């Protein structure tokens, strides 16, 4: 079964039929699908159907089969109950967003201790025709449902690299989802090739791991970051907090930047527990040679406390919200 994640082609959905009511009907179902040129492939009690023909099978299964004993999956993802398949079919619009790259980037400043702009984080935004925005969580949920996370992540990365050309020497922090990347050599080559084509100095791009705390395959993450490092790019870990307590792991990864999760930043000037976490985080950053960055700052008092404690970079609404152009 071809990888739906690598290209935005028509989905091919795999079904698994089980249960004493369904199995006797399976041969007839497959013959019907084959006769109508709907069937893509079949093996045992599983078969694959193109998305454009899925409704036909769904209608039949609800009328003549026990739908509770039928599951589906996309691109070898976990099997899901048939009742959830509408969640996949109803968000087909995400395919057009990805194919046509219907996205832009907004710029949020990252400042130094002098409150001078050091870099910008490039944040993907998805405008509708009426000027309103589709929320990122809706976009990424739709992509995940259809097995499109890699394609969406790639489109966002490519868009961000293009937007980085307007920063004139300032660094650009670009998010990426490590779990969407299968092989760094293949999945990231288009990003690095685009940066080279646009004449961007690799050291000006900082690739930021999204949802650092949720990364389970550390060895895979290390391969991705090693690829970026080999190409001359820098990288950052975001939302780091108490969960990243294994010094050996951080020492292996050696991120150029470590972002302290905003939940430990907001209100830190008056919260001893948050202060303890921030100090421990700072010690880790110094030990592994990373630059500590506090994100989510909204109050002057929190900025002052973090600056006096030894943090070097800062981000948050206090310094500027994401805007359509660099400030």
UniProtKB/TrEMBL annotation:
Pfam family, one: EAL
EAL domain mapped to chain residues: 87-327
Signal sequence extent: none
Gene3D superfamilies, alphabetized: EAL domain
Protein name per Swiss-Prot or TrEMBL: EAL domain, c-di-GMP-specific phosphodiesterase class I (Or its enzymatically inactive variant)
GO MF assignments: cyclic-guanylate-specific phosphodiesterase activity
InterPro entries per UniProt: Cyclic-di-GMP_PDE-like, EAL_dom, EAL_sf
């Amino acid at each position: 079964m071809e990888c739906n994640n690598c290209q935005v082609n028509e989905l091919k959905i795999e079904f698994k039929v089980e249960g004493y009511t369904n199995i006797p009907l399976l041969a007839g179902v497959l013959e019907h699908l084959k006769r109508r040129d709907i069937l893509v492939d079949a093996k045992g009690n599983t078969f694959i159907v193109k998305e454009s023909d899925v409704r036909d099978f769904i209608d039949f299964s609800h009328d003549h089969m026990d739908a509770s004993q039928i599951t589906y999956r996309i691109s070898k993802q976990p099997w899901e109950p048939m009742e959830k398949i509408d969640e996949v079919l109803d968000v087909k619009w995400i395919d057009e967003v990805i194919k046509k790259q219907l996205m832009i980037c907004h710029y949020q400043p990252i400042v130094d201790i002098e409150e001078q702009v050091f870099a910008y984080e490039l944040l993907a935004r998805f405008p509708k025709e009426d000027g309103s925005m589709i929320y990122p969580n809706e976009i990424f949920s739709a992509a995940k449902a259809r097995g499109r996370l890699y394609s969406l992540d790639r489109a966002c990365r490519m868009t961000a690299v293009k937007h980085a050309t307007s920063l004139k020497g300032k660094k650009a922090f670009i998010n990426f989802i490590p779990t969407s990347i299968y092989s760094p050599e293949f999945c990231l080559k288009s990003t690095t090739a685009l940066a080279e084509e646009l004449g961007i100095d690799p050291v000006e791009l900082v690739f930021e791991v999204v949802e650092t705390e949720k990364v389970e395959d550390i060895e895979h993450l290390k391969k991705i970051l090693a690829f970026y490092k080999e190409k001359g790019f820098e990288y950052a870990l975001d939302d780091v907090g108490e969960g990243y307590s294994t010094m050996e792991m951080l020492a292996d990864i050696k991120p150029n930047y470590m972002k302290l999760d905003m939940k430990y930043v907001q209100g830190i000037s008056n919260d001893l527990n948050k202060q303890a976490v921030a100090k421990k985080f700072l010690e880790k950053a110094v030990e592994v040679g990373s630059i500590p960055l506090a994100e989510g700052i909204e109050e002057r008092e929190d900025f002052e406390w973090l600056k006096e404690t030894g943090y070097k970079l800062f981000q948050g609404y206090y310094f500027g919200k994401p805007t359509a152009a660099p400030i």
